[in-house]
Structure formats: C-alpha cells, structure tokens
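Need a sequence for this fold. Nothing fancy.
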C-alpha cells in the first residue's frame, strides 16, 4: 500500500474540488446560511440589549442559536446540499468520466471529494460560530473577564469543535446519500425530521442520531420542551470515537460504491 501516493492524490483532488466549489455560483446559498447567524445575533443584540447584559442571558441566548439554528439547520442543510452534490453534480454536468478515467483508485476519488467538502463546510461554520460567539458578548461590560478569566474560551472551543465534528459526520451521511439516491432531497427531509425530533424518541433510538453525540460536547444545555424524553447522554470519551468510526464506515462504503459506479448520463 502506497499511503504517501494516496495522500498526495487525495490532496490534489481536494484542492481541485475546492477551486470548483469556491468559484461556483450554486454554493452562494451555503455562504448565506453560514452568515445568517451573524445577522440574527446582531439583531438580537440590538432588540434585547438590556437582557443580554447579563452573562447568563447571553450564554443561554447563544446556546439556543447554536443548537436550534447553526447545528440543527445551518450545518445540516449545508452538508445535505454540498456533499450530496459532490458526485451528483458531476453526473448532471457530465464531467464524472474525467475522474473515472484518471489513473487513480476510485476510493481515492471519494475520499478526496469528501475531504474538500469537510474543509469547506467545517471551516465555514467554525468561522461563523466563532464570529457569532464574539458578537454575542461584544456589547457586554464583562466581555474581557468572560473570555480571559471565565469560561469564554472553553465555550468557544467546544462550539467550534462541535461545528467541525458535525460537518464531518453529516458530510459522510450525505456523501453516501448522494451516491445511493437520485433525489437526495427525500432522505435529507427524513433525516432532518429524525434529527430535529430526536429529543422525543425513545432512549435507544436517540443513540442512532448524530445530534445525540454532539449534544454531550456542548457547554450549555437548552430547554427541549415538555415532550422531551430525558435520557442519559453518552460520554464524549465514548461518543466521539463512535461518531468517528461510523463516519469512517460511511465514507468507506461511499468509496466502495464509487468503485463499481457505471456512467449512465442518458439516464439522468
């Protein structure tokens, strides 16, 4: 096994995909979703100025924004769009054969495209998360003490880590969905409902969702409503490896499918 060659090929494919994505107009929607939390927090800070002067109020406000919008909607939808189109986009544009004719293992093509998607979505939402977190506390007199003497840096690190980990996990799910389904919108809608209603599922079923393992990494809990079924969260020491192993299995399955992919442009 020539690991050095494979790593070089994955890097080359990832760079090529990033150039294509960054220059494509169809991804403008993803950039807008990533910037939306900044706008929402700016408006919130102006409309509720007195309440957010209290650290507890600001901390809970940001926790709600991150969990209910950035994590459960923004990152999820962006991964659904970006990763499901990594191969479907090539099929629709009739350019997939250029990859398949290249002297590269097809599994490497899948890993390279997946790497590009993780870099794009992970960096984009990690940056959005960090900027939004700073903005949330920017008008507070306790800004410096919160970050340099209190738990601010720890909270910020945890939120950014969850944003990146969510991009990694959801990206693997939708990479596979884009290869299995001609219309990834159907499984995306089902998964969105599953992840959004995770709090109301029986404890055993809650473990079959990405958000269950991510919530254990977050520094602040949010009120999940009267219909929430309380269950013991999985320890990050166990939860993160489970999530990464499941992600690796999904990406490996995608690579296996690409290995046996046949080009049928006329059928799409």
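Here you go.
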């Amino acid at each position: 096994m020539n690991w050095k060659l494979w790593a070089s090929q994955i890097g080359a494919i990832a760079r090529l995909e990033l150039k294509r994505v960054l220059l494509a107009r169809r991804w403008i929607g993803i950039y807008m979703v990533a910037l939306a939390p900044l706008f929402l927090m700016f408006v919130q800070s102006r409309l509720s100025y007195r309440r957010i002067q209290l650290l507890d109020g600001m901390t809970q406000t940001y926790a709600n924004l991150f969990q209910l919008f950035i994590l459960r909607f923004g990152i999820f939808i962006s991964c659904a769009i970006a990763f499901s189109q990594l191969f479907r986009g090539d099929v629709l544009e009739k350019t997939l054969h250029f990859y398949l004719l290249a002297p590269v293992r097809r599994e490497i093509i899948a890993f390279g495209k997946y790497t590009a998607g993780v870099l794009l979505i992970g960096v984009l939402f990690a940056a959005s998360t960090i900027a939004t977190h700073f903005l949330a506390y920017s008008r507070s007199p306790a800004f410096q003490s919160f970050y340099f003497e209190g738990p601010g840096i720890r909270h910020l690190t945890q939120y950014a880590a969850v944003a990146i980990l969510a991009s990694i996990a959801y990206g693997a799910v939708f990479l596979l969905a884009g290869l299995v389904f001609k219309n990834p919108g159907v499984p995306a809608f089902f998964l969105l409902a599953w992840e959004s209603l995770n709090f109301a599922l029986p404890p055993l079923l809650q473990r079959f969702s990405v958000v269950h393992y991510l919530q254990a990494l977050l520094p602040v809990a949010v009120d999940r409503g009267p219909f929430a079924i309380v269950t013991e969260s999985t320890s990050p020491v166990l939860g993160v490896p489970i999530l990464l192993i499941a992600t690796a299995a999904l990406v490996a399955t995608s690579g296996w499918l690409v290995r046996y992919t046949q080009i049928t442009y006329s059928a799409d």
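For context: The two ends are 36 Å apart (CA to CA).
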